[in-house]
Amino acid sequence: MATEISGISGLKELIGTHLGYSDWMEITQERVNQFADATGDHQWIHTDPEKAKDGPFGGTIAHGYLTFSLGPALFPSIATVSGIKMGVNYGANKVRFLSPVKVGASIRLGAELSALEELPGNGAQVYMTFTFEIEGSDKPAAVAEIIFRYYE
User: Fold this and answer.
1) Ordered DSSP codes for the chain
2) What angle do CA 36, 91, 102 make, to 5 degrees?
3) Looking at domain 3-151, which CATH architecture does it have?
């Protein structure tokens, strides 16, 4: 059940708070292949299961940017912001891919609201730390500082 955050005032109240976790999502070869088609990145470690068996990871792995790009799909199950006119993804300050995600593994997103800056025009720039965890692993797949802008 996603936490509903009420407007910019609700966001301010949650600075420094871990907002929770998404459900687990399995990373399938089909998803990896679709991402490869969308980006043109068909490197064998992602798309050739036979060749990848003998590679450094013992099988195919998700693209780092595939893992990162799942943030918008996973975050709404953690939290939603109501009482705003518009919210936009403003970018990322730092993204690190710490551990490969093998095809067949499941990942989930953990989110922390780390900081907030007020913007002119009833807006706020919100910084969140997204941690993409791999089920059964102590080391996360990726950690990123994500920036959103919300306007009331």
Assistant:
1) -PEEEEHHHHHHHTTTEEEEE---EE--HHHHHHHHHHHT---HHHH-HHHHTTSTTSS-B--HHHHHHTHHHHGGGTEEEES-SEEEEEEEEEEEE-S--BTT-EEEEEEEEEEEEEETTTEEEEEEEEEEEETT-SS-SEEEEEEEEEE-
2) 35
3) Roll (3.10)
Kindly report the pTM of this predicted structure. 0.94
Q: Quote the CA–CA distance of 142 and 39 in Å, as a whole number.
A: 19
* pLDDT tens, position by position, 64-99: 999 999 999 999 999 999 999 999 999 999 999 999
